[in-house]
Amino acid sequence: MQFFKNHRLKGHTLPLGNIELTAANGKPLRTLKRQYFFTIQLNNISTSHSFIIVEELTWPIIIGADFLRECKGNINFETMKLGLKIGDQRDQINICHQAPSTNISVANLEQEKWEIEQEIKQWTSPLLSQNQIKATQCQLLDAKNIFSSSPGCIDTYQHKVEVNDDQGFRKRVYPIPKKVEAAVQEKLTEMLSQGIIRRGISRFISPLVVVKKANGEIRLCLDARQINLLIHKCGEAPLTLDEIFQKFQRAKFLSTIDLTASFNQVKLQPESQQYCSFQFKQETYCYTRVPFGLKCSGPALQRALSRVIPEEIQGNIIVYIDDIYIATSTFQEHLEVLKSLFEAFAKHGVTVNFKKTILFKETVEFLGHTITRDGVKTSQDKIETIQNFQRPTDRKKLMSFLGFLQFYGRFSPRISHIAKPLRELTSIKSKFKWSDHCEAAFNQLKEEFKEQIILYHPDFSKPFYLFTDASDVALGAKLAQKNDDGLYQPVQFASRALRQAELNYSVYEKELFGLFWACKKFYQYIAEQQFTIFTDNKALTSFHKMKCPNQRIIRWMLFLQGLNFDIVHIPGKENVPADYLSRNNPEAQTSPQLFNICLAVRPNFEALQQIPDQQQRDENLGTIYGQISNGDLEFENYKIDNGQLYFKDKGQWKLAIPNTLLDEFICQVHIYYNHIGINKTMKICRQNFYHPELTKRTTYLISSCHTCQTSKIQNKSYLNPIQPIPARQKGEIVSLDVMGKLPMSTGQHRYILVVIDNFTKLIRLFPLRKNNAVNIIRAMELYIQQEGQPNLLVCDRGTQFTSGMWEQYTSDKSLAYKLVPIRHHEGNITERAIRTVEDQLRCYLKDQPHKTWYNYLQDIENNLNQVPHDTTEATPMWAHQGRQPSRPWENILHLKNTTTIPQQKIRENITRNRHRKLRKTNNSRKFTSLNVGDLVLIDQTTISDASKKVMAKLLPRREGPWVISQRCGRNSYELSDVNTGRIRGIFHINQLYKYTNPRHELLT
């Protein structure tokens, strides 16, 4: 159709019954569905004819035999002229034009096939006998048609590229060096003839990149960084290294198959081809096959090959991105796998690069590892790279070195331990100063990889032996199996330092925890089979007989009871593999201060399913439960419904929570809503649950939360009373302010517009790319559309709110607004809301890059709107929208949230709580007294670093805890490390915050 548009031909499109277009070899190419009828002029002859529309023809128009018959065509090959006759019209047309040339010819193809045959006939392997070599050569000759330097075309799968944004983009074309320009043009012509690309039109133009291969040839790739940002992530997760290594277990024969231009063999769906486009010499080309450079290229090839490779041989084949590995224990099995694989390739159009294919080897290289029939070793060239690594001169080079070593962590149990001084240098909290300790650690790490270390393949027909040990500061473990000589050969090592809360465990708890941790670490090896544990703690041999264990130990025991093992006691001096690891852990020697702010995964409240059982076992509830269920007594305030005991509290039936589940439930609610305060936690718990000590336990537990103590603002004293602007109904007064500057998110956002209704306390968070009137007006338009237009806006005196554009906008919308005095933060309630948003972000971003703050914005908004507000005593969602938020335990326990608070009650609560706060703030300031031995926190002093995308506001506010070692004056104290006694310095009392040890493990 593009031909007709370019030449402005006028005609009519006619329907066409589905006609199959086939190649000369009979292979179907595509279905034709349209034809075009128009008048053509050939020299002096004019005639009308219908033409079938075929995309991607070499020539724009081809005259067929039916046309020649109609026009009585006669070809004279001596004069190279075509004679035509239509009625009385006669004419002759020159036909001496040459067809467009390609790099592929019959002679070239025949030459390539002949060369491949010669290579096959000369192929040999020192691992095989002469008969086996001949059998392999015969197999290869039978499959010679799949060996080609041209990529095939897999017919079982077409890949679909899904993008998030359909706006399109056009990246600047990279200049192509003149020296390779001709080679690029030749390559494009070749790819056109092979059907890998086509000429077309696209709104998604990525730059073309020329990559020179080792053999001197060039490869054309896309710089697909922009389109990769828009492409949906593919769902397939690649196999882990452990899973891949297990497939090579006991393999005597190994082979690697290299596909010719692997990704280019996978077809793209027609609608996806526009996303893979580039320009060269002002011509636009679209890939019809998957190009190199897309983040979905690997998964696309994996999907295609999974539909090609027969299921019966997939157990012997490992596909990793574009590499195919074959592993078998016998020659005959290997040959049969090759035969099945090659037949499948021939059937479905896959081609193989024979020159890069390696067959029948004892070892293969895989991701920097050397794989043998016995086990896995580090590649020799990687060992040489480590030995030749120069001393790092900055953080970037040091992190590169440590990251390189960490990839081989399974081969040495001491990498993380030795590297502690080096890891400290990577912290932005300290200057990059290379010390003698760093030099010693650097050299010792090199020494660890001076020789190849082998980890043996696990043999699941033999028993496993697990060595575990725990010291005061660390855990160590080694998984091993016995060889034929009765010696223990390693399968894998593991060790780690104990965390802050774990350091407080008793000796027995540390030993049991070490056993639990090691079993979880090696679970994939030891599950569903008998194994033996060696420990130097004799008490562990009878851990299952322990009386009155705490909840933490019960969880460990429940996990261990699902495993089948024997525990054998050995003296510490004989438990060398594990004992050495735990007691020589330099990382644990100094007890690093870690900020364990929050868990990435929210609690699931599965423990609440045990409520009926725990109620019956409870000392108080159990008696009542039994009397009601047996019909002995009836209680006015107790009932059993659906097997659960309820208590009537102030006219509302609430689930009676037993003592054993109370603390864990309170902590889970606190963590689920990202460390909300004590009052909010109590109000949520009280909605459905009752316990006489709920208030006391909530205060007791949450006041000791490590995350809250280190991350949230602690008001040491009370300032002048706040006089808020009173609001009597929804939408009467709305306050707004801008939070930022934040690290730039992936969507180029750097600010947050915080909008809060003064009456209902509903908070809305809008991300902004720039802090200006234009973006704020857009956000306010969205707020008004969703929540309604307010009567009065309260904002600060920022330039965006004093600009003419803002004044014009509020005038056009008939919006009254009030500007609070400069630096008078109490006049705008969003200042307090911003502190809460910062606390929430700080908790979310503990272990995440700060630029990902945008991903948590909606969660933070939901958290703040779904928990009761201290002033209204209702959730902002209920006060503003008249609906209650759903709680995660309602579906589990079949509960309904029937709590309602009328608007009048909300007004009364606001008035009462405002007066209460005024009375409270009028009291004299409170001072804290500290004593030697008390634990305290100090303010975090880390500053923002734009180069590392770290913002000080999103870091924990405080660090610690530290212990007061002595008093140095009336208001000064000396602080030291809790574990090592290292002096931190002397601090004024106003810089210290009293710290309470977490009273529950979930709060650490």
TrEMBL record:
Keyword entries, A-Z: Endonuclease, Hydrolase, Nuclease, Nucleotidyltransferase, RNA-directed DNA polymerase, Transferase
InterPro entries: DNA/RNA_pol_sf, Integrase_cat-core, Integrase_H2C2, Peptidase_aspartic_dom_sf, Retrovirus_Pol_polyprotein, Rev_trsase/Diguanyl_cyclase, RNaseH-like_sf, RNaseH_sf
Boundaries of every Integrase catalytic domain copy: 722-884
Domain of life assignment: Eukaryota
Enzyme kind, highest EC tier: transferase
EC number: 2.7.7.49
Protein name: RNA-directed DNA polymerase
Gene: Tf2-1_2
